[in-house]
Amino acid sequence: TRCTEGPGRNALTESIPPTDRSRPPGESRLVRWFGYALVAAACALTLLAWQSVAGRLAADAQARFESFSAARELLFDRHVKRLFDVARSFQGLFLASESVSAAEFRTHYEILRIGEHLPEVVSVRMDVWKPVPQALETRLRVPAGRDEWDDPRVDASRAHWIEAARDGNFALLTAPYRLPEGFTGVDIGVPVY
After folding, report:
1. How many CB atoms lie within 10 A of CB 38?
2. Whole-angstrom distance, CA of residue 172 vs CA of residue 87
3. Residue-wise burial string across 91-111, b where 16 or more C-beta atoms lie within 10 A, e elsewhere
4. pTM for the complete prediction?
5. pLDDT per residue over 158-178, tens digit each?
6. Per mean pLDDT, which range of 22-26, 81-85, 183-187 is the poorest?
7. What is the CA radius of gyration of the chain?
8. Contact call for residues 151 and 126 (beta carbons, < 8 A)
9. N or C: which end of the chain has fewer CB within 10 A?
10. Are 191 and 87 in contact (CB under 8 A)?
11. Residue 13 in this model has a pLDDT that exceeds 90
């Protein structure tokens, strides 16, 4: 504050800010309520902006998730189709010849490089379906299996699908079950007559 003295002035009056008494009556109350309203409006606009941004982020995340899911589904479909094509190639091997030796079966397996390109394939087998006692008798297996792996017993549901695939000449993808190798997996099968 300036401290000057002169007519009508003294240092004391210039250093004290004007009080509410110098404003018209009710103006200070109006200014206070206007300030409160301004703060409340700013908070409300901030919340609305946050909600808008959160909605856009959620929509973007959902779109990315759906895009990723569609891409993964497409890759899975292509991979399963590739596995079915491998099974169909073995079907073609049996349809092209009256008999297939174990050496020819193994050679076909090695030419396709299944062990290298499809490491999830545990084995390729040629099984003979025996309706009584509902079992598959393994005739050929690549890679060669251990003797303790028994021929798989088949439950009634799986037997139904094996016979339907045989009768309709379509490829079969089983539900997960306990494989003869000792862990859970699926079979992809095609009929050979």
Report:
1. 10
2. 10
3. bebbeeeeebeeeebbebbee
4. 0.60
5. 777 777 888 888 888 877 877
6. 22-26
7. 41
8. no
9. C
10. no
11. no
- The confidence score (pLDDT) of residue 4 equals 53
Q: Which two tokens stand for residue 89?
A: 């190639």
Start-to-end C-alpha separation, the chain: 109
The model's pLDDT over 118-128, given as tens digits with 9 standing for 90+, comes to 888 888 878 77
Q: Please state, in angstroms and rounded to a whole number, the distance separating the CA atoms of residues 152 and 184.
A: 13
Neighbours of 141 (CB within 10 A): 19
When pLDDT is cut at 50, 70 and 90, the band that residue 5 belongs to is low
Distance CA 35, CA 27 (A): 12
Q: What is the rounded CA–CA span in Å between residue 54 and residue 159?
A: 53
- State how beta strands 177-178 and 184-185 pair: antiparallel
For residues 151 and 127, is the Cβ–Cβ distance under 8 A? Answer: yes
Q: Would you call 162 exposed, middle or buried from its count of C-beta atoms within 10 A (0-12, 13-18, 19+)? A: buried
The vertex-99 CA angle with 93 and 102, nearest 5°, equals: 80
